[in-house]
From TrEMBL:
It comes from Terrimonas rubra. PANTHER family: INORGANIC PYROPHOSPHATASE (PTHR10286). Substrate binds at K34, R48, Y60, Y144. Mg(2+) 1 binds at D70, D75, D107. It catalyses: diphosphate + H2O = 2 phosphate + H(+). This is Inorganic pyrophosphatase.
Length: 180
């Protein structure tokens, strides 16, 4: 039986998914600490401090009631003019996806903007983001595990239609995997 008080299972992916989703933030933008919601308890735990001098370039978390190819909830990067506190739910407009390969395993990162932040909510597609920001994202995710002797590759950035398909698939996979 699923624990409805657990952030992964108790929060909802959002009524307007896959266009606008609910993101649950684990790691605030600018942090070097990698926090994760514990799968057993639902509490926030410190997974590790990043081994390098990198900081998360965006607020990072997951979309509740989704299941990705890696067996975890679907990851989301939420662009916002502010750092968002851990365990905060945020309405996020999906604009694309960053397809990552982490130790040989597909690990999609949905890219979204905070729907209620006028500094970023005018972005509607990943192609509208400054090219330099996409280079920073790529650089962060390709390099942040190097000192741990782990290899991460960014396959490519994908448009919002592809991101919507990935989200719908992750919602369907979650429903199938966690049949009630």
């Amino acid at each position: 039986m699923l624990n409805v008080n657990h952030p992964w299972h108790g929060a909802h992916f959002g009524e307007e998914a896959p266009v606008v989703v609910t993101g649950l933030i684990e790691i605030p933008q600018g942090s070097r600490s990698k926090y994760e919601v514990d799968k057993e308890t639902g509490l926030l735990k410190l997974d590790r401090v990043i081994y390098s001098s990198f900081h998360y370039p965006a607020n990072y978390g997951f979309i509740p009631q989704t299941l990705g190819h890696d067996g975890d909830p679907l990851d989301i990067l939420v662009l916002c003019s502010q750092s968002i506190q851990s365990l905060c739910l945020v309405e996020a407009k999906v604009i694309g996806n960053m397809q990552m390969i982490d130790n040989g395993e597909l690990d999609d990162k949905i890219i979204a903007v905070a729907a209620k932040d006028p500094s970023v909510n005018h972005y509607n597609d990943i192609d509208e983001l400054p090219q330099h920001f996409l280079l920073e994202l790529r650089n962060f995710f390709e390099q942040y595990k190097v000192l741990e002797q782990k290899k991460v590759e960014i396959d490519n950035f994908q448009d919002k239609a592809t991101a919507h398909t990935i989200i719908n698939d992750a919602i369907a996979y979650y429903k199938e995997y966690f049949k009630k």
